[in-house]
Queue: 2 jobs
Job 1
Amino acid sequence: MQTTDALVIGAGIVGAACAHALAQAGLSVRVLDARLGGATAAGMGHLVVMDDNPAELALSRASLDLWHRWAPQMDAGCAFTPCGTLWVAANEAELRAAHDKGTALHAQGVDCELLDAAALARAEPALRPGLAGALKVRGDSVVYAPRAAQWLLDQAARHAPLRVEQAEAMQIQGRTVTLRDGSQRSAGAIVLASGIRAPQLCPGLPLRPKKGHLVITDRYPGTVHHQLVELGYITSAHHSDGTSVAFNVQPRPTGQLLIGSSREFDTTDPAVNDALLGRMLQRALHYLPSLADLNAIRTWTGFRAATPDGLPLIGAHPRRPHLWLAVGHEGLGVTTAPATAQLIAAQITGSALPLDAAPFAAHRFASLQA
């Protein structure tokens, strides 16, 4: 049986970041990935500080610091772009919320600025008139996540022995993983980072799929300069328990625009929902009317793995020795992959934790309690 210090299941952005952190710690690492495609390949690749709660803020902020540290070393294919985010306020009530959000972020050392209506119009002339303003978060960025994941694996191989296998894990038992072909791999620590497919290998994980739609346009350089998100996004989509849409448009380095976002529960059908897609695009047009004149070249869907409380599972499985969890990041997997990996590596190696791990511990859910 082939053995390594650590074995990571899943080579998406979270799994790749875990492999990178473990290799940096000097561990030999094997990565298994079935190449079935997951959230990393389907998502927007936004890197954004979120502050729905203190734990999310700590995880996302620590991760953004790492992304910016890595950015100068990344190749052009990673398409890292420090475009910043504008949280757009449609009215005075939302502008007050933007002010409060800015105050909270600034208190945590996040570089941000409140824009009034005139400043917003200068920053993004394509937005419709009549908007109240926006909160500008300067450090937010975007990255092409599939290439960034490969870059992390490439970097990992420079620090310690690394083997990446295209293989589907079928069972985890103790320190052993059985593959579809019947062969086995073993490791001192097994890290489960396979997103929405993780419950197939670890029944009882409280993960629920959230389906999302995305649209990308042809190339229209200069149309939008920042990632644009409606301030109502947090209440209208991020925490909704039903089908919902919100305005979210992102400029890509190619000059294309990536348009989101939607949330749809209780389906694993990858087909495009035309009615929901129509609602999403109408929402985008409400803020950015000139989108009506642009040509969309592709539409697709993906599935985010969500936990009941909106925080990922990061750390040891309470009832399964040698199994470590790095799942349930919902729409923030790309953003929070670096700090997630730092937490996993620190716990496995017994090193000092980079931030408080308690809010992400698996035993907070009854189905995973020892």
Job 2
Amino acid sequence: MQQAIYSIVPVEFRLDLKDPFIFTAHHIDYFPEGNAELGPKHPALNDEYRMYYGDTVPGFPEHPHTGFETITLVEQGVVDHFDSLGNGGRYAAGDVQWLTTGNGIEHCEMFPLIHEDCANTMELFQIWFNSSPQQKQQDPDYKMLWREHIPHVYLKDANGQTTDIRVISGKLHEQKALPRPPHSWAAADENHVNIFLIQIPAHAQVTLPATTATSTRFAYFYQGSDLELFDQTVKFKHLIELQADIDVTLTAGDQEARILWLEGEPIGAPVAMRGPFVMNTEQELDAAFKRYRATQFGNWPWPSSAPTFKREQPRFATYGGGERHEFPEK
């Protein structure tokens, strides 16, 4: 194996990464048709579903975070978001939510099964992305990146086949991503945090440009038959760690290949992690838990720990405790 590839690791659902990333979860649940309460029409059998922690509706009810960022990329399904700042929203396939948890927030992510006449497959990536020591002290914030607004780069190969690359963060060639929340490590251009979703047609080829020698770089091949790079053939559901300061040419096999591309400059600070809290020392973790027990990171303003919107609710987001509403452009 050439030095250009540091490792190739099979993945079940969790991708263990390196600074500035913490890990990424690739969740897929094949939920059935929904019932009147937006739960599954047919009851789950044992532990059939991975993302089912609600009593009725699948998802993750009210829970706290502090000291890092969650970047949620939805490929299939619908998510209802509520938080302790009084914000809420609904987003769906193709949308991205970027949440900086800062000095503490509670939120819930519920997956209403809005279709009563067909399956409600849920697929998403949630990237746990670290914050700098200074950013861990900032107030939490979030931003919706709507699918209508996320920029795409289309690159043709020698045979005229076109690869579609969604630029979630950073820059590819001259195309910049949408702005990230201001207190994110990814917000500064000099940190070179590039997050791309790459879709390569069968037998097509695309080249990703080099970044800095100090950057972390990973490619997660999550759909397709096989992928070739640097004379290595990789099967799907493998995580590849790559040298960052060289160009990388990817060639899809007999099926369309889909890749999650992650790279960025390390923060370089120590990491102390305990459950949903990520700080720099054990003493800071102890203090964060003590603060959470005392404050709950704000009062939960919603009628339950696992609320949802009505079935007919279109995609939207609120900010400033509901003072400002945002809908994606049609």
